[in-house]
Write a structure and sequence with these properties.
alpha+beta, globular, 3 strands
């Protein structure tokens, strides 16, 4: 039998003892978002969001549910807790991708043909376009 060793911080996590953080993906994305509203609100206040992502590894495990203040469907970030838009998604161990919530994170999604997560989309919108950035003078 497989034995899972749970970290000590899990006892004080705000989701401890709750079953509504793991959601079935068969109900469709709209229903999933609706069911995740309360877990996302709770998770957004938890001090263990980064540890949670490290433990669950939602991308690589293709997790469905709420983890680290974000709603995941098949390992893809769909939504985040209110106020987390500016916070990059914590990296998973062994994750060589640029962190979500950055312009390079968005580019990594696009290179892999993945849907761009909300954190990366908002980071790209807040970054000035190439036309708006000042140019360096040409070397003579």
């Amino acid at each position: 039998m497989l034995s899972i060793e749970y970290p000590a911080w899990l006892k004080t996590a705000l989701c401890s003892g709750r079953s509504d953080f793991v959601l079935a993906s068969t109900s469709g994305e709209a229903t999933l978002r609706k069911k995740a509203a309360l877990p996302l609100a709770i998770c957004g206040w938890c001090p263990h969001r980064a540890e949670c992502v490290e433990f669950v590894q939602p991308r690589t495990s293709r997790f469905d549910g709420v983890c680290g203040g974000r709603l995941w469907l098949n390992g893809r970030e769909l939504a985040h807790s209110p106020g987390l838009a500016e916070e990059p998604t914590p990296a998973e161990s062994g994750d060589r991708r640029p962190p979500c919530g950055t312009a390079t994170g968005r580019a990594a999604h696009e290179r892999r043909g993945e849907p761009v997560c909300l954190s990366c989309a908002s980071a790209a919108r807040s970054r000035p376009s190439a036309a708006a950035r000042p140019r360096r003078p040409a070397a003579a």
